[in-house]
């Protein structure tokens, strides 16, 4: 179990392009007694970061974060899916359309940085040289060394006037979610509640939809309601009818 001693901080990891500011603000309003520490990590390092307890929970890309290392026992929650886009030099032939298909880029050369923003997806042909970071790859795209496929938030993060990007239809999206290892951590559970929209006063059970009842359970509930209102044959109304 990962415990968080009194007087320490709750460490939230996040990967490039993911913006935890909204949730961090809510946390600081609700838990001024437990400081929130934001820790930047790469997708390829995020599973190891929680596994080695460098962070308590991480906002990362799933399942990409799990493609690099075995995190051991872990838990995940998917939050939203980002569109995959292709970054190209401004004025490139591919910018003539609003959206690209896999067939459009099948013969293109792609750069794959070592920090692997999309490790499970490889369109086109790979350039032999692998830049160290996505930022380095963006520089090479601007120099005409190849194209780059990334989640849309990364294209926005590294936006330059000499570059453009287009959505790549048919490509798998990048799912942003939470990854953590300790299911008994109250701070982690509280942060998950914030992300899911639980209010400060609601319990976990109040914020989540009730389980659907089967037909047998619904019938039993109806019978119980009738008995409580006296509308059963042996209830109060039945007794009144017999008196008449």
Automatic annotation (TrEMBL):
Domain LysR substrate-binding: where?
23-197
Which positions make up the signal peptide? Answer: none
Q: What is the lineage of its organism?
A: Bacteria, Bacillati, Actinomycetota, Actinomycetes, Mycobacteriales
Q: Where is the composition biased (Basic residues)?
A: 213-225
What this protein is called in its record is LysR substrate-binding domain-containing protein
The transmembrane segments are none
Keywords carried by this UniProt record: Activator, DNA-binding, Transcription, Transcription regulation
Return the InterPro entries for the record: LysR_subst-bd (IPR005119)
Q: Which family does it belong to?
A: Belongs to the LysR transcriptional regulatory family.
Residue ranges of the region described as Disordered:
198-244
Source species, domain of life: Bacteria
For this protein, the record's Pfam families field holds: LysR_substrate (PF03466)
What organism is the protein native to? Answer: Gordonia defluvii
């Amino acid at each position: 179990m990962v415990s968080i001693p009194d007087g320490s901080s709750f460490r939230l990891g996040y990967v490039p392009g993911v913006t935890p500011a909204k949730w961090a603000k809510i946390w600081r309003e609700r838990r001024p007694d437990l400081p929130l520490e934001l820790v930047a990590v790469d997708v390829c390092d995020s599973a190891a970061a929680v596994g080695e307890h460098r962070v308590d929970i991480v906002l990362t890309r799933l399942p990409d974060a799990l493609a690099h290392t075995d995190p051991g026992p872990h838990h995940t929650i998917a939050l939203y899916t980002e569109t995959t886009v292709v970054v190209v030099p401004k004025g490139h032939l591919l910018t003539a359309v609003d959206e690209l298909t896999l067939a459009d880029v099948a013969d293109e050369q792609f750069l794959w940085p070592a920090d692997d923003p999309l490790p499970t997806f490889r369109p086109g042909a790979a350039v032999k040289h692998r830049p160290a970071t996505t930022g380095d790859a963006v520089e090479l795209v601007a120099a005409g060394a190849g194209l780059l496929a990334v989640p849309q938030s990364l294209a926005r993060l590294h936006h330059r006037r000499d570059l453009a990007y287009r959505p790549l239809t048919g490509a798998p999206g990048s799912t942003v979610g939470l990854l953590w290892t300790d299911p008994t951590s109250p701070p982690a559970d509280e942060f998950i509640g914030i992300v899911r929209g639980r209010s400060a006063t609601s319990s976990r059970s109040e914020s989540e939809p009730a389980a659907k009842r089967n037909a047998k359970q619904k019938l039993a509930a109806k019978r119980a309601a009738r008995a409580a209102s006296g509308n059963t044959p042996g209830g109060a109304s039945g007794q009144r009818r017999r008196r008449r």
